[in-house]
Design brief:
Helix 2 packs antiparallel against helix 3, helix 10 packs parallel to helix 12 and helix 11 runs parallel beside helix 13. By secondary structure, the chain is of the alpha/beta class. Helix content is about 35%, strand content about 20%. It has 16 helices and 20 strands. The strands form 5 sheets. A 7-stranded antiparallel beta sheet has the order 16-15-1-5-3-19-20. A 7-stranded parallel beta sheet has the order 7-6-14-13-10-9-8. Strands 2-4 form a two-stranded antiparallel ribbon. It has a domain of about 230 residues: TIM Barrel (Alpha-Beta Barrel), CATH 3.20.20.70.
Length: about 475
């Protein structure tokens, strides 16, 4: 059976809808938005081009796909349910290319919640049923968009605390590192999530994400970088009694550059005390490594309560290696060392750590963060409350505006057909009859990708947002 069969890339119940719409239906018009109540007040739209190229572009309907889908749905739901005639029409009359028009905001653009991000409309009245049939697939843009939004908000947070503590900002691009490949739900999701993160940061250990810009965003530049680093299988190789011998082996074997060392295999306080003890073999090894220009050692505690453990480690490192003050009176390490916290993080915990550091006199430049599950798998469609709804239908030549208005007013949908216009530094969704330049662009029509954007352009839009106050 064909895995990427467009006839089957939907929810089961949508297969039944083609015979439920009112007689005379010619067009369905639907839209995507982040509804009121989202975690962040803007959503950075990203990932549609990937979905279009991978699943919708070109001839995606074939006879084999139609026949396989008909057989499966007959067994799955019942006979004479699957819209075989509708799909056959698309194959015969459109050469298997989907007769829909998709308009969307340029990827990487931050849009205020409760505004339209994308619209979908059929271009052949015989295929009105196709629009919301595609919802299940198209709505998956929520995932890379939400991750892109989260990373951008973390970058804004980091930038703020760098400024208020008079920190150097040369490491801002690497203050949040993607550790999430192993915790992702699939390699495909790790690629999408990892590439969304690269719109705001350059640090990643999710190698598969590096392929997205070239393969789907016509950009052969490399956007993600990493460093040499240890894990517990390395650090515990000689057991507790051989811990420091193994650390010496790691430092002696390390190449020039940045070396990240996990320090909580047994007791991080003992580790940092020994590392900073003047005259100890470990201290001398670290200092010798730091003698080379550009070399840096980053210490990574990997367990404990994030705020208190971070402050404890900062103080221990300061006692051993020294620190000085920024122009605003916040402590910075004397040597090219740093701290990495990468366990159990989310936006709120990063905020708590940075606030605690400031409150205790520490400059934000001393720390970087690593996020795995918090980046890849702790977001849901409800994080930014993304929803895809029908707002207008053309029947017998006349447009009818439709909407839902449940008792939960936060789920009230928009009505009519829209354009997205700029309103100062924000956006506003208005009727297509209202004057104003539409920010939404036709990106896909009748099987053809009409806008093929570069990853660098998308990254620039996201960075412009994260640099704002």
């Amino acid at each position: 059976m064909i895995e990427n069969n467009i006839c089957l890339l939907t929810d089961s119940y949508k297969v039944t809808h083609h015979y439920f719409y009112p007689k005379g239906t010619e067009k369905i018009y639907s839209y995507l938005e982040s509804r009121v109540g989202a975690e962040f007040n803007k959503t950075i739209f990203y990932g549609l081009q990937y979905i279009l190229k991978k699943y919708l572009e070109g001839q995606v309907v074939t006879q084999q796909k139609i026949d396989e889908a008909d057989e499966l749905i007959s067994a799955h739901i019942g006979p004479d349910i699957f819209n075989k005639d509708g799909w056959q029409y698309i194959l015969d009359e459109h050469d298997g290319r989907l007769p829909v028009e998709i308009k969307a905001v340029p990827e990487g653009t931050p849009v205020d919640v409760s505004n339209v991000l994308m619209t979908v409309e059929n271009t052949d009245k015989e295929s009105f049923w196709l629009v919301n049939y595609l919802e299940s697939l198209l709505l998956q843009v929520w995932y890379p968009s939400t991750v892109a939004t989260l990373s951008a908000e973390v970058r804004k947070l980091c930038s703020f605390y760098l400024d208020v503590t008079a920190s150097e900002k040369d490491n801002l691009d690497f203050m949040l590192h993607d550790f999430g490949y192993r915790g992702a739900t699939s390699t495909e999701s790790s690629m999408l999530c990892g590439s969304a993160h690269l719109l705001s940061f350059s640090g990643t250990d999710t190698i598969p994400a590096l392929t997205i810009p070239e393969n789907y965003y016509i950009d052969s530049n490399l956007y993600g970088f990493s460093v040499q680093a240890t894990e517990h299988s390395v650090m515990t190789s000689l057991g507790p009694e051989g811990e420091f011998n193994q650390i010496l082996n790691v430092i002696d074997s390390a190449k020039d550059g940045i070396l990240s060392i996990v320090i909580d295999s047994y007791n991080y306080r003992n580790f940092l005390t020994e590392a900073g003890r003047s005259g100890s073999e470990l201290n001398e090894a670290i200092l010798n490594f730091l003698d080379a220009e550009g070399n840096k050692v980053v210490f990574r505690p990997d367990s404990g309560e994030p705020v208190s453990t971070t402050l404890d480690c900062l103080n221990l490192l300061s006692e051993g290696f020294g620190s000085h003050l920024t122009e605003k009176g916040y402590k910075v390490f004397d040597l090219n060392i740093g701290l990495l916290w990468g366990d159990g993080l989310n936006y709120q915990k990063i905020r708590d750590i940075l606030f605690a550091m400031k409150s205790n006199g520490w400059a934000a430049q001393n720390i970087i963060f690593g996020m795995g599950g918090g980046l890849h798998s702790n977001v849901t469609r409800d994080t930014q409350r993304n929803a895809f709804k029908c707002s207008a239908q053309l029947r017998d030549g006349e447009w009818h505006d439709i909407f839902k208005n449940p008792l939960d007013s936060s789920k009230k949908s928009k009505t009519g057909r829209f354009k997205l216009i700029r309103d100062g530094n924000s956006f506003k969704t208005v009727s297509i009859a209202v004057d104003g330049e539409d920010v939404l662009q036709t990106v896909f029509k009748d099987g053809e990708l009409l806008i093929n954007d570069k990853f660098q352009n998308i990254k620039s839009r996201a960075l412009n947002y994260s640099q704002r106050r």
